[in-house]
Write a structure and sequence with these properties.
alpha/beta, Rossmann fold, two-stranded antiparallel sheet, 10 helices, 7 strands, 50% helix, 13% strand
């Protein structure tokens, strides 16, 4: 660390004032107040489930992924970067280790970094339920929209009941995103061997190449929080 020579306060103040005046700035103008949260962040948080609206991606690998995606974005209107292409993440962990929290935290981090972001989020079970053929519903159009979305979150991959139809839907979705190299955040409770058995070899092979695996361990945070609430309630009873 470099140490700077000390200066008397009066002389330093006069020097700073002259610098500001030379730059056309009025030194008597009070500093602006801290700006409010970005409108884009407020808009993103409105679409995030209430439980995860303050989620924060603090896992080192996920923070590094956010930086990589933000730096690789293409400049758009106003110069703000937009998601182009990039690696995907497979977030693996047992129930309650914070997988969904980290995924939504990554979205908030990208928006906070100024990235123009069109994104969608779904669970695997909701995905299949929404795309299941039924009268008056264009499942093909919705599948294509998900496949083209710049950033997609698929939560709880492998948790829904498996069938040839669900395996085909998963394959079509992942294959399109694999080919276009679109960032995808996937969470699962399953190890790779069990996941491969559930979603099929073709999907698992693509996930192996397109994703970086992030493993979350530790106790079930939901149960830990419930136990803490019970403890505090007993103390104040």
């Amino acid at each position: 660390m470099r140490d700077h020579d000390a200066q008397r306060v009066g002389g330093l103040a006069r020097r700073l004032t002259s610098i500001l005046v030379a730059r056309g700035q009025d030194p008597s103008t009070p500093p602006s107040e801290v700006s409010e949260p970005l409108p884009a962040l407020r808009a993103a948080e409105a679409r995030i489930p209430a439980r995860y609206r303050s989620a924060f991606a603090d896992h080192p690998a996920i923070s590094a992924w956010v930086r990589e995606i933000a730096e690789a974005g293409r400049p758009g209107p106003g110069g703000a970067p937009g998601i182009a292409q990039g690696r995907s993440l497979l977030i693996v962990g047992t129930t309650g280790t914070g997988k969904t929290h980290q995924a939504y935290g990554a979205v908030r981090s990208l928006v906070s970094a100024g990235v123009r972001l069109r994104w969608k989020a779904t669970t695997a079970a909701d995905l299949y339920a929404e795309l299941r053929p039924r009268p008056g519903h264009d499942g093909e159009r919705e599948l294509l929209d998900l496949a083209r979305c710049p950033l997609l979150i698929v939560d709880d991959l492998g948790a829904a009941r498996n069938s040839e139809w669900t395996e085909e839907i998963t394959m079509r979705l992942i294959n399109r995103r694999y080919n276009e190299m679109l960032p995808t955040l996937l969470t699962t409770n399953l190890g790779m061997a069990d996941l491969r058995e559930h979603i099929g070899d073709r999907v698992a092979s693509r996930l192996t190449e397109m994703t970086d695996k992030v493993i979350l361990d530790g106790p079930d945070r939901r149960r830990a929080l419930a136990a803490e609430r019970q403890r505090l309630a007993a103390i104040h009873a």
